[in-house]
Design goal:
With about 150 residues, the chain is mainly alpha-helical. The chain has 2 domains: about 5-115; about 115-150, no CATH class. Helices cover about 45% and strands about 5% of the residues. The protein has 7 helices and 2 strands. The chain has helices at about 10-20, 35-60, 75-90, 105-110, 125-130, 135, 140-145, and strands at about 65-70, 95. α3 (about 75-90) links the parallel β1 (about 65-70) and β2 (about 95). The protein starts with 11 loop residues before the first helix and ends in a 6-residue tail after the last helix.
């Protein structure tokens, strides 16, 4: 994705086409500054949207799965909200991997289809989760046990 010479540059759409029938494309942005990360991720989101629109036109049903690790550190809350709300319409499946669930907006948590919790270190995390409607509708034995005294 990054190149020192023009001949080294590549297109995300070309790289996606190489793996669209199976595979993974990992983009490591850890060496970028925070401001650069924000701009780069915004550009990638726009390209992913274009890829999805192209897949919709083709009628293939082959859409990307996108993992955002600690997204709240480099993507604005509005952009995360856009990703979550628009991804269903575009066909994108998104995963937000975080150690700080409190870093995600409550509106984002309200719209998730699946939530994988491996560890609840803070009472604050439980307090955030109990506000989410699906946590009330479904029996969450382990969640209830982990958040004893906080759950309604």
């Amino acid at each position: 994705m990054f190149a020192e010479q023009p001949g080294e540059a590549t297109s995300l759409q070309i790289e996606y086409d190489k793996i669209r029938n199976g595979g993974a494309l990992v983009i490591d942005i850890s060496s970028l500054t925070n401001l650069s990360r924000q701009g780069f991720v915004q550009a990638i989101i726009d390209i992913i949207r274009e890829i999805c629109e192209r897949e919709l036109q083709r009628g293939t049903g082959r859409f990307p799965f996108v993992f955002f690790e600690e997204a709240h550190l480099y993507i604005s809350h509005n952009t995360i909200g856009y990703i979550v709300t628009r991804s269903r319409h575009l066909g994108i499946t998104c995963f937000f991997v975080t150690n700080m669930i409190s870093g995600l907006d409550e509106t984002v948590l309200r719209q998730v289809d699946n939530l994988f919790l491996l560890y609840l270190p803070l009472t604050m995390t439980c307090a955030i989760l109990v506000k989410v409607p699906w946590s009330i509708r479904k029996p969450w034995g382990p969640l209830s046990n982990a958040c004893a005294g906080i759950m309604p």
